[in-house]
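Hey team,

Filing this mostly as a record. A colleague (T.K.) asked me to run one chain through the structure pipeline before their review meeting, and I want the input and output archived in the tracker in case anyone asks later how it was produced. No errors, nothing strange. Just documentation.

Input sequence:
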Amino acid sequence: MTMRIDRDAARQLMANLRRVDIPLATRIISHDMDVIRDADIVDRLQEGRIAGSGRSAVAAALIR
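Output structure:
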């Protein structure tokens, strides 16, 4: 779990995750658009429940 990490640490974490060679499912909870932009699927939470889900370009619209 990472809470309140600085921007450089977040970038390094995402770079490390992109370099993983084996298929891997990772759930990242973030409000940081730079992190969300790299996601394959984004779930939008509302009142603790998934209120929307989407892939890539669609995901950006779900966040708003």
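Quick notes for T.K.: The CA atoms of residues 33 and 60 lie 9 Å apart. DSSP finds three helices and two strands in the chain.
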